Amino acid sequence: MISPWYKTWSILRGAPQCLAPDEMVLHLGKNIVLLLLVVSSSTLAVFGQRSAAHPEWNNREFAPAPDTSSPRDDSIDQSYRLPTDTVPTHYTIRLHTDLHTGSRAFSGIVDIDFDVIVPTDAIVVHNRDLLIASAALYAKDQDGLLVEFGFPHHEFDQRTEQLTFHPGQVLPIGSYVLTVEYSGLLQTSSNSGFFLKSYVNDDGERRYVGTTQFESTNARMAFPCYDEPLLKAGFTLWITHIAEYNAVSNMPVEEVVPSEEHEGYVTTKFGPTPKMSSYLLAFGVSDFVALEDGNQQLYARPNAMDEAEFGLEAGVKILDALSEYTYVNYYDYMPKLSQMAIPDRGGGAMENWGLVKYAETGLLFDPARNTYRTRKGIAVVVAHELAHQWFGDLVGPQWWSYIWLNEGFANLYGYIGADLAYPSERYWDLYAVENVQNAFGPDATDSTRPMTQDATTPSAISGLFDSIAYDKSGSVLNMFRMVLGDDNFRAGLKVYLLNRQLDGAVADDLYAGLQAAIDDKDVLPDGYTVKQLMDSWTTEPGYPVLTVRRNYNDGSAILSQERFYADKRSPNANVWYIPYSFASASNPDFEDLSDFQWLSTKAERIETGASADEWIIFNKQQTGYYRVNYDAHNWLMIANALREDPSVIHRFNRAQLINDAFNLARAGRHDLALTLDLLRYLSNEHEYAPWAAANGVLNYFYNKLRGTANYHDFIVYVDALIGPVFDSFGDIATVPEDETLLDKYLKQLISTWACRVGYTECLRQTAEALHTAVETNTPVHPDVSYVVYCYGLKGATDDEYRWLFDQMINSNNEAERQLLIDALGCAQDQSQLISLLTVAIGSNSELNSLLNGERSRIVSSIYSAGRFGVEAMIEALSDPLLAQEFVGRFGQGTLNNVVSNVASRTNNDGELEQLEQFLAALGDLISPETAAAAVRTVKTNAAWFETYEGVLSTTYFSDFTN
Is 674 exposed, middle or buried (0-12, 13-18, 19+ CB in 10 A)? Predict the structure, then answer.
């Protein structure tokens, strides 16, 4: 049935065509013939000769770990862990795929070389959704020859995903090979395991891409294996595929030979990998082409190769920089590094050793279409993934409990590596506001976890990949990098990497490496060890607030620490070892980070040397992972100093002061009026980092006050802050050649606020720039495109809206398409927004290029851009037929999410009435619980105005206006 919204939909494309979805035909193919040469007799079968390698295991890895390093939590079900009586040494994997046709079916044979280290009658590996056809077991004799040991039967535990092979007898200590023939299906509903993607080439043909994502527990979806990080082995991979496609993997191709069983197919054979975890194996099958520079390659679809240059350049520069920084050469272990851009991956990237996979938005850059933010994102993501080549690939965690040894280092060296490769961009300026301050939010709750945390189920393991593993862990590691000194930290990392190379690690291994680098160097006070200090941060949840209460008569101060909660004060017995340094008005040296003192008790009195009339600021450059609070008088002196001359305080500390002051006030530890007074200096602030911190504060109040009687007073306050900075830009729709990266960030932030609160000049410039772009059919400069398009659409004609939509739908660049989708959601014409929504919901042959993620992004762009979008969403989905189509396209969860977001953007009685009518119109499409939660959200929003924070805030803005 055609949607009743076809009239508004036709603004963009005309009446939609109802197309039946394509049916997926599963082609199971033929079983692969065993490639091993059989020399049979009644008792002996020799399947080729292998080197009689010694077992690659040691007592340390599989003996019970001492209490100081064991991550296991007895309260967590350990039955998901594999038994340790057998360990793998090598996998030989042979896969066959017809994915070029869109077929999901694949088949494979894997030879698992393993050692029995404790006699056992069971071989237990992992499997998920693979159909096991047969299995054969062979023992290695003293010469390395394989002796047939029978055909074990198998059983599968769906809960633990453990596949157990029973040989029918106890296997003595020794070396064996288990050969398993199996089949499976490529994933299409998730980016996990061996999965299928596609793109449309320049001839309008759909081409398919097979690729992998095995972290954390998904290698078992492609072949039966010991899918735990410590159970490392070498991998030899052969892939049979259509000849016009090619295959890429961790190692270089050794040879490509015609398939004997399948005409028109070839088998691509890769060399053996170093010893590594199963989750690091990767491969891809596609018609991609490569751009090369020395030992590096970047693979992408042929019609995107003109966007590959920067990603490859970044890979070369950053890998060289990190090799030099770590004193460990990447090429001592791997012969090449490939990067691969996957279409329709959504987001993210994966650090497979020697073959890093990215979403296209994380690797492909077109300077004519993509913004400074895309370029920055690529530089940092590439550096993040390449840092993993050391932290995770060369040395991996013994268990997922220590995932911070991977992700914390990658988080930190994503920024350091990008900064080393591109020092003029000042990427490091973004670290604290994008990571330290980002970690503070989720880590200030009761439900937060420590950095070291056990988990055993696949879902619980996936849950460890959170802000704690990334942002907090990177921030804590950076704190100790600064405390120990970067040179010492580098030396310690070298010890750690070389001591644990090709093996697993626990936190104590890192501590030992760092300790070795500083022994006899007088870096830490007597009696302190790296382990003692770092354990206080890695084994406990949360973080402290350092409170500085000054005695203005004698120059002393009392320092105290307490766990910081965002919404309460609660006693906590934990004592963090807090490194601190401070600057003062008479000694405003924020650059010297060579000297730290330690607070190792709940409280301590110190001498500051500061006179009564000068400010002091702790945590120079926000290198420490903690908040700082002061007595009211010191806060007042800081605010006065900022108003007189912001440059006397380091820009990182200016950002810290804003973020700390606001969050301390919200937690009841500090006066909110002092925070709002502090922000008034921003009219003279021209650095991005402090404004990034302030942006969070202003957004908080904007979301509370928009649509209420208090909104005008808030806008007057915002105007006082942003007005002088906005006026300094002049033309916001052009990009000067000498404009720096951080200047671009600042201009977009300030311009967004100026247009949002209704600056006539901002709206005039953006509308004019959009009109000119449409008239000349020439897109604006990408670095100003979002602000121009988003706010230029206020009052835009249908022709202008259609032009912008066509720019999106005709673009071949995923990052540009995402930006344009976000801009299209900014429209303030309801029919335009409903037209856009029906595009996301509907099916039309002209719109086949819309990716699933782009359809979802359209939905969120509409309700996120402002109240106009919220009301358009309500109007559209109040129609039962369209709401049913919406659920059919996106599912129940997305509709629930829409309701939740509409509720969170409902601020007055009129809007509440609209919400209630919307909930009634949706009826049974949403659950009573979802509807009740939405109403509670609105009531909570309204109740805020009667809280102390709400009354104080609105009173402050009112007094400021009057």
Answer: middle
Q: pLDDT digit string (tens) for 120-179? A: 999 999 999 999 999 999 999 988 899 999 999 999 999 999 999 999 999 999 999 999
Question: HEC profile for 513-578?
Answer: HHHHHHCCCCCCCCCCCHHHHHHHHHCCCCCEEEEEEEECCCCEEEEEEEECCCCCCCCCCCCCCE
Residue 113 parent element (H or E): strand 105-116
How many Cβ atoms sit within 10 Å of the Cβ of residue 39?
Answer: 11
Active site residue 385: yes
- The Cα 601–Cα 599 span in angstroms is 6
714 Rama sector, left if φ>0, alpha if ψ -120 to 50, beta otherwise: alpha
Residue 696 has phi, psi (to 5 degrees) of -65, -40
**Which residues touch 101 (CB under 8 Å, ≥6 apart)?**
27, 208
Distances (CA, A) of 482 to 620, 629, 733: 11, 22, 40
pLDDT at 34: 32
Q: How confident is the model at residue 45, as a pLDDT? A: 32
CA distance 72 to 69: 9
Mean pLDDT of 319-347: 97
- Residue 544: the pLDDT is 98
Name the token pair of 757.
Answer: 């609160």
Residues 783 and 140: their CA atoms lie apart, in Å, by 62
Residues in the chain: 962
Does the pTM of the predicted model rise above 0.90? yes
d(CA 454, CA 507): 13
- What is the Cα 264 distance to its own chain's centre? 40
Nearest to 579 by CA among 617, 612, 541, 546: 546
Alpha-carbon distance 69 to 735, whole Å?
54
CA distance 61 to 55: 13
Amino acid at 591: E
What is the CA angle 705-706-711, rounded to 5?
65
Omega before residue 611 within 30° of 0, cis:
no
Residue type, 495: V
User: Per DSSP, what are the bridge partners of residue 140?
Assistant: 146
Sole residue written with tokens 């090799």: 323
The active-site residue out of 161, 360, 385, 854 is 385
Measure Cα distances from 58 to 71, 87, 274, 436 in Å: 19, 11, 17, 39
97-122 in b/e form (b: 16+ CB < 10 A) is bbbbebbbbbbbbbbbbbbbbeebeb
One-letter amino acid of 583: A
Interval 386-430: pLDDT, tens: 999 999 999 999 999 999 999 999 999 999 999 999 999 999 999
DSSP readout, 300-369?
A: E-GGGGGG-HHHHHHHHHHHHHHHHHHT--GGGT-S-EEEEEETT--S-EE--TTEEEEEGGGT---TTT
- Average pLDDT over the chain, rounded to an integer: 92
* Distance between CA atoms of residues 422 and 302, nearest Å: 28
224-274 pLDDT, tens digit per residue, is 999 999 999 999 999 999 999 999 999 999 999 999 999 999 999 999 999
Tokens for 929, please give them.
Answer: 């619980």
Helices (H) and strands (E) in the chain, counts: 30, 32
Query: Rounded CA gap, 288 and 656, in Å?
Result: 45
Q: How far apart are CA 701 and CA 718, in angstroms?
A: 10
- The amino acid occupying position 757 is V
- What pLDDT does 12 receive? 54
Buried b (16+ CB within 10 A) or exposed e, 925-956: bbeeebbeebeebbeebbebbeeeebeebbeb
